[in-house]
Design goal:
- The chain has a single domain, classed as TolA/TonB C-terminal domain.
- It is built from 2 helices and 10 strands.
- It has helices at 49-53, 82-92, and strands spanning 7-13, 20-22, 28-29, 37-43, 58-67, 72-79, 96-97, 106-121, 129-135, 138-146.
- A 6-stranded mixed sheet has the order 1-9-10-8-5-6, with helices on one face.
- β3 (28-29) and β4 form a beta hairpin.
């Protein structure tokens, strides 16, 4: 049986290079195999600019295979609009895990990315993004829109 540890990681991004976060205490991910997975590296994600301009919000649900060496194998978008699933897929491909110890060497897990726009920023078209990871399997990406307020 897997133990689930809830961990919240919050990064605020204000234009520029995206920081990379390495978690010092691994947290267990839920998966379809009995082998536990632990996150070793999480890479942040800025709200997709085209999605922000289009005021697109939504959820991208991804299923991924984690290989024996902890790298990401295949990622498949289960649901969500392409302007959100593509950046979420690119982001998840950069994460690293302790590795899959399942007998066949592959663990499958699902990660949900939620993209939410809250309010407006009036001082710059590069509105800050907040990237929050609630382990084991949820990522929240929030930002403000530039210009007139959201209804």
């Amino acid at each position: 049986m897997l133990n689930k540890i809830q961990v919240r990681i919050v990064l605020s991004l204000a234009g520029g290079a995206l920081p990379m976060f390495s978690q010092s205490t691994p947290a267990t991910m839920s998966s379809t195999t009995p082998a536990a997975l632990a996150v070793k590296r999480i890479v942040s994600l800025e709200y997709p600019p085209l999605a922000r301009m289009a005021r697109l919000e939504g959820t991208a649900i991804l299923t991924t295979t984690i290989l024996r060496d902890g790298t990401i194998g295949e990622i498949r978008a289960e649901s969500g609009p392409e302007p959100l699933t593509t950046p979420a897929t690119e982001n998840l491909s950069k994460w690293r895990f302790t590795g899959c110890s399942a007998p066949h060497g592959k663990c499958v897990t699902r990660v949900t990315y939620s993209f939410v726009l809250r309010g407006e920023c009036t001082d710059s078209p590069r509105c800050p993004t907040e990237f929050q990871v609630d382990l084991p399997d949820h990522v929240l990406v929030t930002s403000k829109v530039f210009g007139r307020p959201l209804p």
